[in-house]
Design a protein that fits this description.
Number of strands: 25
CATH architecture of the largest domain: 3-Layer(aba) Sandwich
Helix content: 25-40%
Number of domains: 4
Radius of gyration: 30 Å
Strand content: 15-25%
Strand order of the largest sheet: 12-13-11-14-16-10-17
Bound molecules: adenosine-5'-diphosphate, magnesium ion
Number of helices: 23
CATH superfamily of the largest domain: P-loop containing nucleotide triphosphate hydrolases
Amino acid sequence: MGNSKLTVDSEIQFLKGVGPARSQILASRGIRTVEDLLYYTPFRYEDRTRLTHIRDLVPGQTTTVFAKVLTCGLIRTRSGITIFDLAASDSTGMLRCKWFHADYLERNKVFRAGQQVFFYGKVERDQYGTGTMSMIRPQFEILPEDTASEGGNSLEIGRIVPIYESISSLTPRVLRRLVWGALEGLDGQMPERLPPSVIARNKLSDRAAAVRETHFPAPENDLAVISAFRTPAQIRLIFEEFFNVGAGLALKRRQAKALAGVEFKVKDSARAAIRKILPFHPTAAQKRVLREIVEDMCSPQPMNRLLQGDVGSGKTIVAVQAAILAMENGYQVALMAPTEILAVQHYLYIKQLFRPLDYRVELLISARKAAEKTAIKRELAAGVVNLAIGTHALIEEDVNFSRLGLVIVDEQHRFGVLQRAELMRKGRHPDLLSDVLVMTATPIPRTLALTLYGDLDFSVIDELPPHRTPIVTRVIEESDRERAYKFLREKIRRGEQAYVVCPVIEEGGKLDLKPAVRMYEQLARVVFPGFRVGLLHGRLASAEKEDVMQQFKRGEVQILVATTVVEVGVDVPNATVMLIEHADRFGLSQLHQLRGRIGRGTKKSHCILMAGEKRSEVSQERLDTMTATNDGFRIAEIDLKLRGPGEFFGTRQWGIPAFRVANLLRDQEILEWAKKEAAEFVAHPPSQKELQQFVTYLRNEWPRRYGLASVA
Ligand code: ADP
Ligand code: MG
């Protein structure tokens, strides 16, 4: 390759300074081309145009100091804690920096006297020194000795400096150099991707300039504005990402609407069947969402609907009614659940519910005997089975339906968009798509859901069934364990049941079930020898799992020790107590899902969170939130804030695009704006040519950049 010209599409290994090793590291973050690198934007900036003198430091302020290392080394306090202690000075004074438990700084000989270093951190008055200022755990950047020879063009000093998140051994400084090299190599040659009409109407800045400015902002910019990601350059890049996704979803939706779906008819026979099986009066919210679903099913276009409702809000019965409508129209229904336990539960519940009716309901999970599975598959293909309930087994290649009219996916967050599409295609009518109803209990903050699930319609159950008493949640520590056991004992003597949830610890990629097994043995033999204790975890054989669940349902098992396999779907209204071990190790949404297993009946329920005494600020906030509220939406908002969107949505499983520049929390306003523009552009493009050009670009970029299924 050598001297051929660098373009945005050049593979990253052809960039100067990137060899095979570095290109592999970069690839681990999805950076494969020069363009990928340029969209790896700084997560913060340091204003090194005006460095603060040590003399002028004020406690409480967060700032950058440029100083020379005087001394450094590891010290050990009397209580046995090791601290890496460093003293540095500029011409005006001395600064101390401390890192607790940082033996690695000593081991790796990171610092030595004489080095010139940027320290970035919060200034505090040193507890021990006399008025000396200190920084605890500052971030730092050591200036290499040869920097002086770079003359006026330093990337480190005298400018607003971009700070990147390190990628393994690639430090912010290395990344800064690579980005700089890429910008120099491209020399402003970066093709515009947004449609010209959109740029003009929204007065957006030019792409090449925006990328350069985002990495290396001009010094006259206000650091506060840059740090808030609100310079015109940054806004342009955020807009671009949201616009692309918005337009992609709008195109997808338009395409889906253009296809023919099943046109169900509301029939008296369906009404009669529902009347026969309804075990209770639906809530107003359940009635409303059912109306929305039925209306959608009766339209000639395929349904793509997300049914959202907090744990325990009663989604199952709504889905069951939709299924009846489909079956009474002569179609088959598939209900897919994320775990075997949940699939089995749905199966048993629905089978019992359908006793007065004559539908054929079958369970398809991989754990069943091969001969049984073969038989079920044959009957599915022949159209004899009306309702198939199962796990991933339902989307295996050799599963075929005769007339699949409705696909119900429970607990969506465990499945991807791709699998949903896979199941839709099982209908075997090439030009007729099945209706899809996706149910999720993970409350996606509403604003995000409405804007992001652009290809789905939305129904929300925002009301719990009547006569529920709110769950009381308490945090306790090891010293209260006996009291907690006493509480459980009293409840069980009164005929109620309890869950004890243990985390599964992952060690070196292997799941360690020991804590749960040990807890089970301890409770069964030592603490509650007079009660029947059961154990449920993912490694049990299917038949065993089913057995334990049934015993718990029938009240024969009184205390169920379980891992998070009980997180979704398990429904035993008589269980009123949940004790969660190591609650500080669970995520907030997960705690909420777990807690959703209780509070399902009319009796008052209690959730006891057993937490370690040493817990981080974040885990404390999670526990506080749990005790403060039962509202899934509020909990989701807080969880999103605590974890950040990347982690909240987990991997791309969610079918939510992995944004690079944009941040779903910070940039909601730009999201709304870009989405509106995208919808407008797709609906009324200034010319077909402009639309076509953009669609072609997006089709190539879509799967790679946003990790989503194909656009059109
Ligand atoms: P989720 O939305 O979490 O899937 P489920 O469908 O499992 O909730 O319902 C939770 C519990 O509430 C179940 O025991 C169910 O039978 C009960 N339930 C649902 N709707 C009602 C209602 N309208 N009245 C009384 N109980 C209901
Ligand atoms: Mg459910």
